Backbone:
């Protein structure tokens, strides 16, 4: 059976287009890419990479939590950067969320991100139990 469960939380930004914050299917959770939007205002947070990366990780944490997951359940991440020169700082902030056994990951530079974001990250997590 191809059942899907759509995940939504007010603790992460509402979708700014025709997509869900996350979808659970086949024992996996797939998050939509998160940028540094404040969940309360829908506005971009910060103009520097550190502030934006922290907000992105907070948004992802909220979505994972709403689905009953945590960063330890993540098996794949994709990071999109507006400027690859920001790699080390994003890597530091991203890496702080994974205590051991970090997930597989790809990091790419994108020609442009929504709302002029400096970073966007999406995750795939596995449902345990």
Residues:
């Amino acid at each position: 059976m191809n059942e899907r469960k759509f995940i939504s939380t007010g603790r992460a930004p509402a979708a700014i287009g025709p997509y869900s914050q996350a979808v659970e299917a086949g024992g996996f959770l797939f998050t939509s890419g998160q940028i540094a939007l404040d969940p309360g205002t829908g506005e971009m947070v910060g103009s520097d990479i550190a502030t934006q990366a922290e907000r992105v990780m907070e948004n992802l944490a909220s979505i994972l939590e709403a689905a009953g997951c945590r960063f330890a359940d993540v098996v794949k991440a994709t990071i999109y950067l507006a400027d690859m020169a920001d790699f080390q700082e994003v890597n530091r902030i991203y890496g702080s969320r994974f205590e051991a056994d970090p997930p597989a990951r790809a990091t790419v530079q994108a020609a442009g991100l929504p709302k002029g974001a400096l970073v966007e990250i999406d995750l795939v997590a596995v449902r345990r139990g």
